[in-house]
Write a structure and sequence with these properties.
The protein has about 100 residues and is an alpha+beta fold. Helix content is about 55%, strand content about 30%.
């Protein structure tokens, strides 16, 4: 998108990709071109704002997940300590817990 100067006159064009090729659309050189340029600037600012909001949201979710992961680690550690203190053992280093036998 942008202004082009041809033979001393300034024109506004919009460009976009269509089927892998650039398609250029003539928007004019007067007030219509200025309005099109202003519209394109506004759309670009809105896209930039949305991208910033998405980035901020992604960062917030990442922080929450990191905090949740730390909490889950501590909860799992406390559960293991509690199970061991009440006489449970991990069976064959797997995920199964069993009560320690009385003669062991």
């Amino acid at each position: 998108m942008g202004w082009s100067k041809i033979n001393g006159h300034t024109y506004y064009y919009r460009s976009k990709y269509v089927d892998g090729q650039v398609q250029t659309t003539y928007c004019g050189k007067g007030e219509a071109a200025k309005a099109a340029a202003a519209s394109d600037r506004l759309k670009a600012k809105l896209r930039e704002h949305e991208q910033q909001q998405d980035t901020d949201y992604f960062n917030l979710v990442s922080q929450k997940l990191e905090s949740l992961h730390k909490d889950a680690y501590w909860i799992e550690t406390l559960l293991r300590i509690d199970a061991i203190s009440h006489g449970f053992i991990r069976y064959k280093a797997g995920s199964e817990w069993r009560m320690r036998s009385a003669h062991a």
